[in-house]
Design brief:
Blueprint (H helix, E strand, L loop, with lengths): L14 E7 L2 E6 L2 E10 L5 E7 L2 H11 L7 E6 L3 H9 L3 E12 L2 H4 L11 E3 L6 H18 L25 E6 L2 E9 L5 E7 L8 H15 L4 E7 L3 H8 L4 E10 L1
Parallel strand pairs: 4-5, 10-11
Antiparallel strand pairs: 1-2, 2-3, 3-4, 5-12, 6-11, 6-12, 7-8, 8-9, 9-10
Length: 264
């Protein structure tokens, strides 16, 4: 998403909009590209749109051309600090669906206070790459059902943890570590490192909460990252998710930015 401030631009009449590919548009000023727009499906099937333009009027022209040609609902994500861009999306008919805080947390156990982070008695941590996929999927489905029944906010979670086509709830099994007990998997944590280390999900079965399992999973995941040479990890927490906020702030995580997910 473009976060540059909008500037006074060319005359609105000077800009033409061309659809250059499937779900891709260009704004042209005398054959010079002065803005781009696109739409893409994410893993959960939702359609997200983006517009990159220096000028507010160019943004509006792209939105006017793109949005009627795309099926609703449409989603967009914007850095909350970019007020101009957020206002542009609102002009295009989008409203805030949720706010998500980005946190950064030190991986060094001497800094985050997690130490060895041992799980409670009878629970062991199974590292990523050693997890039974069937048990993982069963635990993931059960946690999703519990959250929906109790809080109803699973559908507002990030795209990578929303129910996917075909009913699958796991994106990539190799990215999950789990807390295992004789009765099955009680909790799970997902970490991806493609661009920078990111904790995508920490979740525990309803009957196993308040036993330190989430903290033990986080200690394990951050410890692995620390041994691999990463000084910090990032995560996103929905504003209304108080347990996750308490978990990360309890280990010294610092909020560094906030994003708005918008919907039309």
């Amino acid at each position: 998403m473009d976060t540059k401030p909008f500037l006074a631009g060319p005359s609105e009449n000077a800009v033409t909009i061309a659809r250059v590919a499937d779900r891709q548009w260009h704004a042209l000023d005398d054959d010079v590209v002065v803005g781009t727009g696109y739409a893409e499906h994410r893993a959960d099937g939702r359609l997200f749109v983006g517009i990159d333009a220096w000028h507010a009027d160019t943004f509006d022209r792209l939105a006017e051309a793109m949005l009627p040609e795309l099926p609703a609902p449409l989603y967009a994500v914007v850095d909350e600090a970019d007020a101009g861009l957020a206002d542009a999306w609102r002009r295009a008919g989008f409203a805030v669906r949720r706010r998500e805080w980005e946190y950064v947390v030190a991986t060094d156990p001497g800094v985050n206070g997690l130490g060895e982070g041992r799980p409670p008695a009878g629970v062991t941590i199974v590292p990523a790459g050693e997890v039974d996929e069937d048990l993982l999927r069963a635990a993931h489905r059960a946690i999703r059902s519990e959250v929906e029944a109790a809080a109803g906010w699973w559908q507002s979670m990030p795209a990578e943890v929303i129910l996917r086509p075909g009913g699958d709830t796991v994106v990539d099994p190799s990215t999950y570590a789990v807390a295992a007990a004789p009765e099955g998997y009680l909790g799970l944590i997902r970490v991806v490192t493609a661009k920078r280390p990111r904790v995508g999900l920490v979740a525990v079965r309803g009957g196993a909460r308040r036993r330190g399992i989430a903290r033990a999973l986080l200690a394990h995941a951050l410890g692995v990252l620390h041994r691999d040479g990463a000084d910090a990890a990032w995560t996103e927490v929905q504003e209304s998710n108080q347990p996750a906020t308490a978990l990360f702030e309890g280990v010294g995580a610092r909020p560094v930015s906030s994003n708005l997910e918008l919907v039309r």
